[in-house]
Amino acid sequence: MISSKSEYEDFVVKLLNSIISGEKLTPDLFPKYSEKDFLEVLSQCVTDGLVIGYSMSRVASGDPVGQRTGEPYVTIKGLSYIDSISQAKALDIAKAAESQSIIATLRANIATIASFTAILVSVLANLDRIVHNVQRVLSYLNTP
Predict the structure, then answer these.
(1) Which partner for 38 in 10, 26, 27, 144 could form a disulfide, CB atoms 3.0-4.6 Å apart?
(2) Which domain of life, per UniProt (predicted)?
(3) What residues does each domain of the chain span?
(4) Which pLDDT score is estimated for 34?
């Protein structure tokens, strides 16, 4: 059973690609889905004008039935649908990569801040020695 928009879109793209590759459409090509899901998606593709070569109707129970009426092929609208889904997925991938990049930058900044903090703590912890040594150096420089 199709449970999300993304799953539906993936199914439609697989169905359209199967038609493009010349496979004879049967529910067996899509074992993840029921025959009713297959027929519903095929019916919607025909109704939306993504595919031609099939005639779809509904029986008294409301279930879709169809038959092949010619050589099935994917229309320009169907090809555009595949392209739009591919672009949407590419955009999602790019957004995820950007998010990962921001996280990596943030981690690098945190590491840099931690390093500077460690240096500052080290200097403050040894400040009395540093001042003492600076005074000794200055006293050596002032002595003729």
Answers:
(1) 27
(2) Bacteria
(3) 5-74, 83-142
(4) 92
